[in-house]
Specification:
One of its GO terms (biological process) is cell septum assembly. By secondary structure, the chain is α+β, with helices and mostly antiparallel strands. It folds into 2 domains: 9-31 and 174-313, Cell Division Protein Zipa, Chain: A, CATH 3.30.1400; 43-169, 2-Layer Sandwich (Cell Division Protein Zipa, Chain: A), CATH 3.30.1400. 33% of the residues lie in helices and 23% in strands. The chain has 10 helices and 13 strands. A 6-stranded antiparallel sheet has the order 9-10-11-12-8-13. Strands 3-2-4-1-7 form a 5-stranded antiparallel sheet. The longest helix is centred in the middle third of the chain and has 18 residues, at 155-172.
Length: 315
């Protein structure tokens, strides 16, 4: 997974595996280099009870570096240490002295174990050697404040497992784009203001994100134009739906298309596929069928679209 959906539109287009194409909609369901799944698709993993799932280690996508305290440690002291020693891709799980595991650390509770849960792979690829040992060093930094024993899994075992996960996720990863061709111009800054009206609130490398309970969409412009720039008649504005990070729904593409249709009417633009063919509600059923195949494939391989697990790995 060597691309990042938060890069410029040029990078997005170069790396998109699945694009909207009415004339050849079968392309959207193509999954190359398939391997046998290594991920469990158990009910607990696919459950909507994300809070329960989040409070347990997911051995299929992360590994644990255990820090066993010599003596019980108060939650408030653990919090102070984690405030200084923290990494975004690592989450923490504690075990109380009565063997109850939990994600929330209570100030006045005593804990005997801290688990550092490190992600095996994401869209940047499998965990690197440097990141593995940086995670181990972080555990050592924590034990410099509290007397404890570190238990860390074998490096070669973790790397092999991470590569398998990465290959599987590469075969499952998918997105779909719709493009708007402008019928009128927009002055400097107007596109950004309109995007904010429709919920696009986060900007990164000149792309905007919309992340809500239904979908995860990236808005960007062609030819490396800035979102702040003047928009001419005929300019293209692109919307990319990140399928693994969007909510699994039997009408996902219809919901996506309806949303982009609303935007197109607001800014006076027409919706086209990658070949410039105009799209309407009359010709989206075939695309919806292919999107549903992708959603089914994700779920059958243990990555229900929009689930905590999918959003953690496809990032």
């Amino acid at each position: 997974m060597n691309y990042n959906f938060l890069q410029s539109i040029k990078d997005i287009i170069n790396n998109i595996k699945l694009m909207t194409n009415v004339n050849n909609s079968k392309d959207i369901s193509h999954i190359s280099d398939r391997i046998e799944p290594v991920i469990s698709a158990s009910a607990s993993i696919l459950s909507e009870d994300y809070n329960n799932y989040y409070s347990n280690i997911d051995n299929e996508i992360e590994f644990s570096i255990d820090i066993i305290f010599d003596l019980p440690v108060l939650g408030i002291d653990i919090k102070k240490i984690l405030t200084v020693n923290h990494e975004e891709e690592i989450r923490y799980l504690v075990e109380s002295t009565d063997k109850i595991k939990q994600i929330d650390i209570s100030d006045n509770n005593s804990y005997s174990l801290l688990k550092m849960l490190v992600l095996l792979a994401n869209r940047a690829g499998p965990i690197s050697e440097s990141r593995f040992f940086n995670s181990y060093q972080l555990a050592k930094d924590i034990t410099s404040h509290i007397n404890a024993t570190i238990i860390c899994p074998d490096y070669n075992f973790i790397i092999d497992k991470a590569i398998c996960l990465d290959r599987l996720c590469m075969s499952l990863d998918s997105c779909i784009s719709l493009h708007l061709i402008m019928n009128k111009k927009l002055d400097n800054g107007m596109l950004l203001s309109i995007a904010n009206i429709f919920g696009f609130i986060y900007s990164y490398k000149d792309a905007l994100l919309l992340d809500n309970s239904e979908y995860y969409i990236i808005l960007s412009r062609s030819n490396n134009y800035s979102l702040q720039d003047f928009v001419k008649i005929g300019d293209v504005i692109s919307f990319t739906l990140d399928i693994p990070r969007s909510n699994s729904d039997k009408n996902l593409f219809y919901i996506f298309f309806s949303f982009i249709k609303e935007i197109s009417e607001y800014i006076d633009a027409k919706i086209v596929d990658k070949n410039g063919i105009e799209l309407s509600f009359d010709n989206i059923n075939a695309i919806e069928l292919q999107v549903q195949k992708i959603l089914n494939s994700l779920e059958n391989n243990g990555f229900k679209a929009g689930s905590y697990r999918a959003r953690r790995v496809f990032k």
